[in-house]
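Protein 1 of 2
SEQ + STRUCT:
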Amino acid sequence: MKIAAKLQLAVIVIVSVIVAIVVSAAGFFGVRQADANLNKEIGKLALSVAHNSESGTRSADQSLLDPVLEGVMLDKDILYCQIVDNRGTVLAAKIREHGPVPSREFSAPIITRRAMTSVEDSSGLNPDVLSGREETIGTVYIGVSLISLHRQITNLIMVTVFIFLITSIISSLIFSVTIKRIVIQPIDVLIKATRRVAEGDLDHQVPVHANDELGSLTGAFNKMTQNLKDTTVSKDYTDNIIKSMLSSLIVADQNGIIRNVNQAAEEMLMYSAADLIGKPLTLIMGNKELVRYPTFGNGLDQDFLNSVETTCVTKDRRNIPVLFSSSVMRDKHDKLLGVVCVARDITDRKRAEDELQNNFQRLQKVLTQTVTSLASAVETRDPYTAGHQRRVTQLAVALARAMSLPEDIIRGLNMAAIIHDIGKLNVPAEILSRPSRLTVSEYTLIKVHSEMGYKILKAIEFPWPVADIVLQHHERLDGSGYPNGLKGDKILLQSKILALADVVEAMSSHRPYRPAFTLDVTLEEITRNAGVLYDPGAVAACVGLFQEKNFQFT
């Protein structure tokens, strides 16, 4: 079916639906109006009967009521009419013989005005002025057949259908002729013009006769034709730009087939353009996943890749490092056209990075050796704690790993633990080497070693807060530590771990003035003070290391 026929059919369907809705609405409201008229008419009849039967109901005289009911029954749609007093007694009734028919019952109260009593007259007002009181003395019931109403509704529906058919036919014819003149003929002109452009006539332009959507479409078609002509003229210019780029540029179509390369790509990959054009893009990619997009395989997560390090494969099958970027090309309808890839050879940069990394590792090694030498210097001045810093480091690092801390934090903690007592270089050797318990003043002097260690280390630009870790390694959660009485989160996590490792190692080691504590006593001490002096997470990790993993100092 041609587009013109489809459009006309669509117009007929739409017009028919609109007419159907309008006519159906009119029919619906007509039915409702007929029903409302019936209710209104019978309601008035019931009130009239109630008014005319007031005296007969008050006196319960059937001879007065029968004429009223007989007048009502003259209407053939009335099925029955009866008058009932307030006690439920049927005073008069008329019933028409009939089979089962749809019906509706109406009722109206019978109201009388009762004269004023003597008590009510005692106000001294003229009784003629008083109107009396209204009183309901009975009810009129009227049953009405709905056959006439249904007949009216049926006739109304038939008229509605007839109107719908006539209106639909006339409206469809009018709209079809109008649509053909306004829409279909201009579209036919555009179709013919499109065929001419497809045959290569890029100079053809379609006259614009209207300032509407079709006029806009015609203008857009003319602009597209002119753009296509301009693009064709500038193609050679674009190719020259691509070839002159310093970075390697490869253009592939929607099927992943290489369609263009520049001179830089030829030189980097050691292929000629003729060797590459027509070949799959995956031929030159080390990581073939980078060039997946919808027609390649499972789809591309993003249309752009920006400066991804990967490799390209040269003609002699060498993998060279490149900085790779790509952009998927789509038309205005989001249809895939292809992909543009840019690759820059970073062989020299990678070589420089490797050299820099080697230098950094050498510096790290020198730094570690220097720190270890400093630790040895401390231990030579304190023979009773020889190996203390090494063992504390061993436990602190094990705790950090058990707590799943990042490797970089663990390296910083390791560095700080190795030299956490470096401040003792400032403490007199005779105090450090005394085999007996220290006096209060001597212990006070010993406590300064944290601050002294901070002063020694703060000038060194470590990649971690080594000086602060050393400064805080005698602080306690409740603020009872030294030198600054820090509490809770004010203390670095690395310092909390180091503090616990320091205490556990000290209690587990022999001193001249006391023997080493057993492991059970040591663990009971830190468990009792978990959350008070020591970090609960570090304590839990420490207990697990000794009891479950059989940790031992070496």
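Protein 2 of 2
SEQ + STRUCT:
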Amino acid sequence: MIARWAQTRRRFGWPSAAGLLRRRRTSGALLAGGLLATVVMSVAPSAYSAPKQSDVTAPRGTLTIAIPQYPPSLDPASGQNAYSDFFDLAYAPLIVKEPNGEFKSGLATSWQYGSDNKSFSIMLRSGVRFSDGSALTAAATKTWIQHEIAFSGGAGAGYFASLSSIDVTGPLSLTLHFSAPTPELELIFSQILEMGEIGSPNATSGKTLTTATDGAGEYMLDASHTVTGESYTYVPNPYYWDKSAVHWKTVVIKVITNPSTVLSALETGQVDVAEVQPITNAAAAKSAGLRVDAPLTLYMALALENRNAAPLSSLLVRQALNYAVDRGPIAKLLGNGYGLAIDQMAVPGDDSYDAALSNYYPYNPAKAKQLLAKAGYPHGFTLPVLSLAAAQQNTLAEALQGQLANVGVTLQPDIVPSVNQYETDIAGTSFPAVTLSWGRLPAVTQYQILWGPNGQSSRPFKSSSRQLNDIYDKLITAPTSTEPTVAKEMQQYLVQNAWYLPVAATPLAEFYRSNISGVNAAPQRNTDYDVEFAPAS
């Protein structure tokens, strides 16, 4: 499911605000420099034993998926995971992130970090072939990573910003060398961030991947039955190494933008799974006998950005704003009954989530007024706020406007109609506070793109905190065993110092028919993976 995040430009490793509205992946910002640290480690999943031919279930019929948007390019090197469905079917990743959040082998059978997370060695699965019949090799993988880095406007340049060299150490082995600590590579090389979805060098050199596929995944595009922007047909890759994972004779992705049309198509069986659907249609979907999957995807919050000037320079003021909001009703409104009221920029399943911070700011308008008076604002103040007429940001702004008025704070939302205008304004200094619809990401990535000195919430006003920076330095060098503790320390700092006014975590929904299994979005992986969709019986 699309996550999505709000984000600063991917060109530098920061996602765009448009991505914010439509991102599909749990973690998708570009990671510049160091990432979530791990100890030097190797991963060697248990050996895969190919099933006997007699044990392999033959693919069944046709799976039809409805999605409201289509990609400008079918090349997964773009890293545009709003379009992950189109990529995932044809391109297997080096590493697979499972619904429980763990990583398992994909095209890679093992991987290992070097000293200080400045190198990453990969051992590839033998006998893998792309859909053109050519073999997956270490040299092909190196060529693909170089293609990702060179892809114009793509994510690779940011993900691999500190990559200094790639050594091919054997036919199926290679080592990446970095100039700075770069953990979190399992995520980068998974289907979540797509950089491990390797394509054939033949297609890369032939520049055919805009309108065709040539991966090592379960399926491949059938161009003869595909109409760009309308319907995309995939058929089994005859060379895929694990025949038991190919569940369908045909997979069709239909581009349907009208949610009502999607519901009708689901009810009549013309569509089996519909992704990126408005949660407001969940009740109607259930009434029609459909199943609903609605993992929490976005944080809805007010970023209190100009902490260098009054009134937001006062901690008392920022805390007062947090006490002044009754989050429950707003969460119910924004999430259509599926939302979660939050006091922190994290939810269960996130590495920085701290249960002790739940209800840290209970609704207490009287206390809010006391804090405002103590800060020198007994009659409140006026707060200009930037908001967007999309992703329910405008609804959030209007709800906050009503509640903050009860403690004397006059919220003045400027609700802009376009993402481009929002991105322009959010980079400036005209608005001390902005509404966010921000996606779930690891704490280290959130620091890099949101609350760190180069992040969206701090860069415009040059806001920074030595204490927060020190926590980040600990985070990128923390061993795996202590990383969650350090991530929680970062969240504690943000909540206690009220850098944000978090209000709700909300879902994007998908609906599916009861004869479909494998719709596996979960708190630890809040997106499905289309190749897991299978007949229910």
